[in-house]
Structures are given as structure tokens and as C-alpha cells.
Amino acid sequence: MEQAEALALTLKILSHAVWPVDPVRASCEREVQIGPDQHNAPCPLAIADDVEGVFHRICLPEMPDNDADPVRQMGYNGARIHYPSRVCQEKAARQQRTGVRLCERRGVSELAGDGCSVLHPAMPSTDLSNDIAASREEILKQLASAADHPVELVAVSKKQPDERLQAALDCGQRVFGENRVQQAQEHWQHRRDIEGLCLHLIGPLQSNKSEDAIALFDVIETVDRKKIVRTLSEAAAKLNRFPHLLIQVNTGEEEQKSGALPADLEELINYTRQTYPGELKGLMAIPPVDEPAGPHFALLKKLADRAGLPWVSMGMSADYELGAKLGATHVRVGSAFFGERKTD
Fold first, then answer.
1. Which label site among 89, 163, 165, 212 has the fewest CB atoms less than 10 Å from its CB?
2. In this predicted model, what pLDDT tens digit does every residue of 93-104 receive, in sequence order?
3. Domains of the chain (ranges, CATH numbers)
4. For residue range 130-158, what is the model confidence (pLDDT) as tens digits?
């Protein structure tokens, strides 16, 4: 296909579906070749798009002659997909299970075969509240199926616009996770009187923000050193407010990541129990992105059980079902709950 034809095809596709197009390559990318006889053909047109946080390139060998929906008309038989990382693989597995729901939400009626689901670009929702409500319902069903114990869904609301937060509240979500104290104040300070609202701090905490964190959050999941325990303890005593604490564990022992090393965990647990006037409830971890999450989840659960801690926060959008299966009491889900968000 000549360049001019490719451009014309692009315009025609956009005029039919109004798909958001983003040519930026990302670390988590799917490569798809559509059509039963197109396995080795060059890709005449590449559209990069973000569906549930997974970037992919969709190669469209041809365009239907009629004016019908191009996605429904274009065959997906024999689609070829490449998932270059664990994150992509786990997201793909989850998307395969939830593909019908996603297609229904985005107005696409057919899925790819042979394990290839959700190969279409994301289409803008016409009803944000219904869109988020459908995501929440599906995630809760998956968690109930994956675990034989209650699992709390923490909706990660960092950098989400106000209308998405309100849509989540409207569908009954009351537990939210935030990465930064200041942004959490902007999101929730004026909503603090909502019945049942429970806020988790899931990002790194600077010691000079300890008093603000104690004042706003109900759970602080990222305790990782004695200094933070001390400043939180002082702030809690001053404000007479005692959020639950979780210790973040660096299960992969990554130099660039926050969290107590497993070898140092027992000492930090004992110190926290002796120093903090509230309750130490559990452990939290974020596995390395280039390693299977399962062993890290299993290790975290074992460490929590050994310490007699009832809460285990593990599992995010790519792997919350696995976390639930391996004993998570809390999962932190962002893009799978809210959809794509803008990043600064």
C-alpha cells in the first residue's frame, strides 16, 4: 500500500470510529497482524492505542468497501500477537477473560479468536458512570471467583479528573488509593464527610508530610523505615488520629524501589509495634515488572502470616486476580477500574 493510500485509510478509519490515535511507543506493547492470510505481510498502517493500559499496534491490511463499522467487518482470524513482558502477558490474560465486557462497552461486537481479545482501539464512553460501574462490577466478580476470602478493592484515583472520581462514588465505590498527599488533599478534603469513605496512601511518604498523611488517610501502606514510623507516631499522638499502617516490602530487593528488605522486616515490624500508637495491620509489595508476580506474592503472604499480620496488599491492574488467589486482602486497581488516565 502506498503512503497516500495509507493516509487515506487512516482518515477513513478515524471518520468511522473516532478512535483516539497515539503514535507513541510504550514499553508494554502488543503487535497485531489482522487477517487470515496476512501473517508475514508488511504492516501498511500502524495505529498505536491504549486499551486498559496496554499499548499495541494494530495492522489493518485492508478496508471494507461498504460504510459499515470497520471493526465488525474486518476479520480477526489468525491474528498474531506479541507480548514482550510479564505485565503485557498478565494484562492480556485478564483482557481475554473480560473481552466481551470491554467490547460491549466500546461498541464493538466481535472479538479475535485463538486467545486474541480486545484488539480494537478504545472508544470514548458515552456514559462515564456506567462505564466505571461496569468495570467495578467485573473486577468484583473476578475477585470473588479468585479468592475464598473477602478482598477489598482499592480504586487507585491518582491523577484522575474529578468527574471520574464522582462517577466511581456514584456507583458505590468508597475505598480509594492515592500516591501523593497533596493531590489526595485536592481530591478528597472536601469529600471527607462522605459516609464510608476510606483513603489509602499507596505512594512513598516523605517524613515532612507525616502530619498531613495522618490527618487525611485511613490507611498508610508505604511505611518502609524507622524514621517514618517515628514521624507518623508523633503526628498521630498530636492529632489523636490513628490510621492503620502497612509496611511496604521490597520483595525483589530492587535498589531503586522503596520498601523494607525481607531480611530487615522483622526488626521494622517490632519497632513499629512498640512505637506507633495505632495498629500495624499488614504488608504491601510491588513485584519487579520484569519478573513473574506469583513468587513475590507468595513470599509476601508468607511473611505476613509469620508475623501474625492479617492484611496483605498485593496485586494491581495487571495481576489483581493472581494476588487474590495467593491471599491478598487488598488489591490496588487503577487503569482496569477507571480506564486510561493522562500522565504528566
1. 163
2. 444 444 333 333
3. 3-106 (no CATH), 128-338 (3.20.20.10)
4. 899 999 999 999 999 999 999 999 999 99
